[in-house]
Amino acid sequence: MGKVILEVKDGIGYLTINRPDKLNALNNEVLSELNTIIDDINKNSEIRVVIVTGSGEKAFVAGADIAFMKDLTPKEAVDFARLGQEIFFKMEQSEKPFIACVNGYALGGGFELALACDFIYATENAKLGFPETGLAIIPGFGGTQNLSRLVGKNIAKELIFTAKMITASEAKELRIVSQVFKTKDEMIKFAEDVAKQIMKNGPIAVGLAKRAIADGFDLTKEDGLKYEASLFGVAFSTNDAKEGLTAFLEKRKPEYKNS
Ligand code: HXC
Questions:
Q1: Total domain count for the chain?
Q2: Are β-strands 4-9 and 12-17 bridged in parallel, bridged antiparallel, or unpaired?
Q3: Fewest beta carbons less than 10 Å away: which of 5, 75, 211, 246?
C-alpha cells in the first residue's frame, strides 16, 4: 500500500495520507507520492472534487517528519520546504476543489496541507496548530503565508509564536474550519454531499472561480477586478456557459460537458 492513496468514485477523488504508524507525518517519500498523485488528479477528467484526509482516526497529518528533518543541512531544509510548498501550491492552482477533512491532529505541515485546500472540515477531536517554534524551527510549507492571509497577521502570529494547538471549535470561531462533526464518517458524508453539489455546476466555471479567488486575492482591488472580468470572458468561451444560460431560459436542467 502506498503512503498516499487515491481512490476515485462517482467523480470524487479520495486522497488519503497513509502512514498511520507515524500519524501520517510527511517525509520525502510521502511528499514525492503526493506530488505524483496531485499531477494524476489534475490530468484525470473523471475527478471533479478531491476530499483529502488522513488514514486512521487519530491524525490528519501530525506534521513534517521530525526524524527526517533532524539532520537536514540548511540547503536540504530549503529544498524540503520548497518541495512541500510547490506541491501545496499546485493544489491551490488546480482547477479542482480540494476539501480537507481533518480527522484528529493537523499540525505543522499537516495544518499547512489543510490550508492548501479550498476549505476545511474537522472532527470534534481535531487539534490544529503550528508547533514549529517549540522545535526552534518555523512553518515552511506555506503556513506563515497562508494562515496570515486567512485569519490576519495578528492571530497568525499568536498561533505561531505560542505554538499552541487549538480545538476544532476554536478553529471554527477563527473561520479556519467551516464545519465541525462528531465523527469522521459524518464529516466525509457531508463533504461528499458538498462535492455532489459542486458537481452539479459548470466544471470549468468552478475552476475559473477558484482561480479568480486564489490569484486575485493578492492583487490590488483594481487588478483583481480586471482579472475577474477577464476570467468572466473566458467562461463565455465555453459551450457549458451557452448551455447553462440557455437551459435556464428553456426552464430545464443544464447538461454540462466540461467544454
Ligand atoms: C515524525 C511523528 C510525528 C512527526 C508523530 N510521530 N508525529 N514522527 N514526525 N511530526 C510519531 C511518533 O514519534 C510516534 O512514533 C508515533 O508517531 C505516534 O505518536 P505519539 O507521539 O506516540 O502519539 P501521542 O503521544 O498521541 O502524541 C500525538 C502528538 C505527537 C501530540 C501529535 O505525536 C506530536 O507532538 N507530534 C509532533 C507534532 C509536531 O511537532 N509537528 C510539527 C512538525 S514540524 P513511534 O515510532 O514512537 O511510535 C513541521 C514543519 C513543516 O511540520 C514545514 C517543513 C518545511
A1: 2
A2: antiparallel
A3: 75
Whether residue 16 is found in the same domain as residue 76: yes
In a domain, 120, yes or no: yes
Query: Which atom, in ligand 1's list, is nearest to the CA of 134?
Result: 40
Domain span at residue 142 reads 4-199
Catalytic residue among 112, 124, 250, 255: 112
Asked whether 176 and 120 are in contact (CB, 8 A), the reply is yes
Q: Is the CB of 25 under 6 A from ligand 1?
A: yes
The answer to whether 112 is a known catalytic residue is yes
Query: Which residue has the CA at smallest separation from atom 34 of ligand 1?
Result: 62
Please tell me the residue having the least CA distance from ligand 1 atom 54: 140
- The CA-CA-CA angle for residues 96, 98, 101, to 5°, reads 160
N-term to C-term CA, the chain: 35
132 in ligand 1 pocket by Cβ < 6 Å? yes
Helix axes 203-216, 221-235, angle to 10 degrees: 170
Within this chain, do residues 238 and 213 fall inside the same structural domain, yes or no? yes
pLDDT by position in tens, the chain (length 259):
799 999 999 999 999 999 999 999 999 999 999 999 999 999 999 999 999 999 998 999 999 999 999 999 999 999 999 999 999 999 999 999 999 999 999 999 999 999 999 999 999 999 999 999 999 999 999 999 999 999 999 999 999 999 999 999 999 999 999 999 999 999 999 999 999 999 999 999 999 999 999 999 999 999 999 999 999 999 999 999 999 999 999 999 999 999 9
My answer on whether 126 and 240 are in the same domain is no
* Protein residue with least CA distance to atom 46, ligand 1: 22
Burial of 90 (0-12, 13-18, 19+ CB in 10 A): middle
Does residue 211 fall inside a structural domain?
Answer: yes
Q: Does the Cβ of 100 fall within 6 Å of ligand 1?
A: no
CB 47 near ligand 1, within 6 Å: no
Model-level pTM? 0.97
User: Do residues 11 and 139 share a domain?
Assistant: yes
**96 within some domain:** yes
- The catalytically annotated residue of 132, 192, 228, 255 is 132
